[in-house]
Amino acid sequence: MPGLPRSLSKLLTVFCDFDGPVVDVSDRYYSTYHQALTDTAKFYSELLSPQSRPAAVLDLVVLTKAQFWQMKQNRTPDREIAQQSGLNAAQTDYFLQRVDEIVNCSDLLHQDKIQPGVTWALGLLKSQGTKLILVTLRDRDEASGMLEQHGLGQLFADIYGTASRQAAYQNYSEVKTKLLKRAMQEHRVGTKQLEHSWMIGDTEADVLAGQAMGISTIALTCGIRSHQKLTQLQPTLIKTDLLCAAHHLVGMSSLQMCCN
Description:
Layout: H1 6-9, E1 13-16, E2 23-24, H2 26-48, H3 54-58, H4 65-73, H5 78-84, H6 89-102, H7 106-109, E3 113-114, H8 118-127, E4 131-139, H9 140-149, E5 158-162, H10 167-170, H11 173-186, E6 197-201, H12 204-212, E7 216-220, H13 227-232, E8 237-239, H14 242-259
Helix pairs in contact: 2-6, 5-6, 8-14, 11-12
């Protein structure tokens, strides 16, 4: 694909989320659910009857991955997921505690994988002179390490993350907004650059952060929110994945070039 004029393409700045757009976390989140449920069953079965099978004691209903992920995409709270799996209120508290304890443990983090088409997407944007900046609630070192592992680190001009291993799972919108604001300030994205700046993500935290900072937003359905949930947030665009978003931005820039 022929490159766009540098004077046009370098104006585009893309702030991109990590979990969802770049990395598929669905296996890890489901394993977290399954392991926490198993640990809860074991804990209560040992209290009541060491010889009993955990599932029999608690009468568990273990969700399939498809069922679980659909609930996560529809923003079903973990407490409700636990209760639909057969846990009572006290057992649910233990389950939620286990989820917090293990969701970011090394035994599960290795299950994260790069989303299909991401290497092409980032390469396409970078080849057109786009400034790529990662803005994630994930621990910054975790995100940076995984990008380097897959040879993607050099494609980003900067990486903004947290020092918390819980922020990403809890999806704090206000934290994402502060990170995006800091990234925009440090990269001098002011009023004149807002028209050429985009926030790409897969959750309400990403869309709300972009809207709060006055930049256009692209919500992706390949992550942890359904198309219906994302539509309610009224992002500028909804695309299936990062590659589709990249093609749109490159095509949009080509159209602008033709109109100028």
